Amino acid sequence: MSGHSHWAGIRHKKALTDAKRASVFTKLGNMVTIAARHGGDPDMNFRLRLAIDTARAANMPKDRIEKAIKRGTGELKDGALFEELVYEAYGPGQVALLIGTATDNRNRTFGEIRTLLTKNGGKIVPEGSVAYLFRPVGEISCSLGQRDPDEAELSAIEAGAEDVTRDADTLYVYSRQEDLQSVKESLERNGFEVLSAGLSYLPTQKTSLPAGSAAEFDRLLEALEDHQDVQTVWDNLDSQQ
Q1: N or C: which end of the chain has fewer CB within 10 A?
Q2: Strands (E), 42-110
Q3: Which pTM value belongs to this model?
């Protein structure tokens, strides 16, 4: 989550942590449920395997994961039918946004996302208005550990990566979405510790925030990421700004 709120007391901090954890588990459960609609066996459904791995990494209880799978396969009849929707928007400074959601009520989600954007200097835009500024990719992050960064990048390219970036500790590997599974498995065979993997969007055109817009943009991101239906927010902000 975005933001760095500082609370005065330990009880406040614990309450915030518990609330955040509950919100994260809800989001992860929805992600598992949607993935399980394509089959409940993670050995046969790579997307479900990724969703389960992500949930486990967040210490989501096993029974909640299993319940989410059953909801997706239809074994659990609780009346909730989740679908994925991606909203296109502009934030402060005309930063392009793709807002990935999982919802059981598209009218509610659309109205609430639109309100959050309006209150924080952004706006919903028609389909196709900003999507062309991004390209779909598979994204894998790996721990560099003690590896030589240049050799790690070369190994990732040999594994099928189309693009590679890195920071001090992490290698970010990008592939075609349809190649995500094969690239991830190749990296693991080569001894990489995969920290996360999933479908993503990379900006093809980047922009910078005007002076004075950074705080407003951060508030919008925090508001969006705190919303129960929002799974991921992608933007075309230049990270080197």
Answers
A1: C
A2: 83-90, 96-103
A3: 0.82
According to the model, what pLDDT value does residue 240 have?
A: 58
Q: Which of 71, 104, 70 is nearest to 85 (CA)?
A: 104
Q: Round to whole Å and give the CA distance between 190 and 156.
A: 9
Provide the sign of the torsion angle of the four alpha carbons 221, 224, 226, 229, taken in this order.
Answer: negative
Angle at 186 between CA 185 and CA 191, to 5 degrees: 95
Does the pLDDT value for residue 100 go beyond 90? Answer: yes
| pLDDT(156) > 90 | yes
Give me the phi and psi of 97, to 5 degrees please. Answer: -130, 140
The pLDDT, as a whole number, for residue 21 is: 65
Backbone angles phi, psi at 94, to 5 degrees: 60, 35
Which pLDDT does position 175 carry in this prediction? 96
Taking residues 131-146, what's their average pLDDT? 94
Cβ–Cβ under 8 Å, residues 61 and 113: no
Q: How far apart are CA 161 and CA 180, in angstroms?
A: 9
Domains and CATH numbers, the chain: 10-73 (1.10.10.200), 83-128+207-232 (3.30.70.980), 132-203 (3.30.70.980)
